[in-house]
Specification:
Layout lengths: L14 E4 L6 E4 L1 H7 L2 E3 L6 E3 L4 E2 L7 H14 L5 H27 L2 H14 L12 E10 L5 E9 L5 E2 L3 E6 L5 E7 L1 H4 L5 E2 L4 E8 L8 E6 L1
Antiparallel strand pairs: 1-2, 1-5, 3-4, 6-7, 7-12, 8-11, 9-10, 9-13
Length: about 230
């Protein structure tokens, strides 16, 4: 039994006690205290409570112990989160993350801001990310198409990887134009054809491309090329 600070009872005065469940105040008689040892069924909510615990000589008094008791009752009635719900929530979060990685994983690994963090994680847990590819982070300079003495053409260009990560060498499409700007010939070159000794370029690495092109029958007025 917990300790209670008992107060002296004045048998000549009316006493009052407040129900901790509904805050209804009751007038208490000495005879009631003797017969039921202080227990009372509240006429408002019907619940039983110990009148001695909340006894007062003033009719509208609100005891500090009463408020503390009510706060404790409310706290005890608050639903507690079971451990099983915490486990279930964690599993659902993991499942959702797995679905995102499964359906959007490759696209996410191609985002530079996300790739930086993923690289650090993979370095720590020894995993491998798919090769980085971003066509917008290649730069081309010094491109030229020159006629050779045998009538063929030599296409040359310098390609640089401007990404923060090593990139797979892209394929190349070269298109020859007539003097009206219309395409008269074109060909796709794989990376292994124009850079047979390289499969990837490190960040800020530059490499020169040199391709021999057989001249078409129509005169060449210009060219375009794209990295794919």
């Amino acid at each position: 039994m917990t300790g209670v600070d008992w107060m002296p009872i004045n048998l000549t005065k009316s006493m009052y006690s407040r129900c901790p469940h509904c805050d209804k105040q009751h007038e208490i008689t000495v005879e009631h205290l003797r017969q039921r040892r202080g227990l009372l069924n509240c006429s408002a909510c019907g619940k039983s409570f110990d009148t001695l615990r909340f006894l007062s000589e003033q009719e509208d008094a609100v005891l500090a112990d009463d408020l503390h008791y009510q706060d404790k009752q409310i706290s005890d009635r608050r639903p507690q989160t079971p451990a099983v719900w915490l486990v279930a929530t964690s599993l659902m979060s993991v499942l959702l993350l797995a679905q995102v990685l499964y359906f959007e994983g490759y696209r996410l690994t191609m985002q530079p801001q996300i790739r930086v963090g993923l690289d650090k994680i993979c370095s720590a847990i020894a995993c491998r990310l798919p090769p980085y590819r971003n066509r917008e982070e290649w730069s081309v300079s010094h491109s030229n198409l020159q006629v050779q003495t045998d009538g063929s053409y030599l296409f040359s260009a310098a390609v640089s990887n401007q990404a923060l990560f090593t990139q797979i060498v892209p394929d190349l499409k070269l298109t020859l134009l007539n003097f009206n700007g219309q395409a008269i010939a074109g060909r796709m070159f794989s990376a292994s054809e124009y850079l047979p000794k390289l499969t990837s370029l490190a960040t800020e690495q530059t490499v020169e491309i040199r391709l021999a092109v057989v001249a078409p029958t129509a005169p060449i007025g210009g060219y375009t090329f794209n990295l794919l």
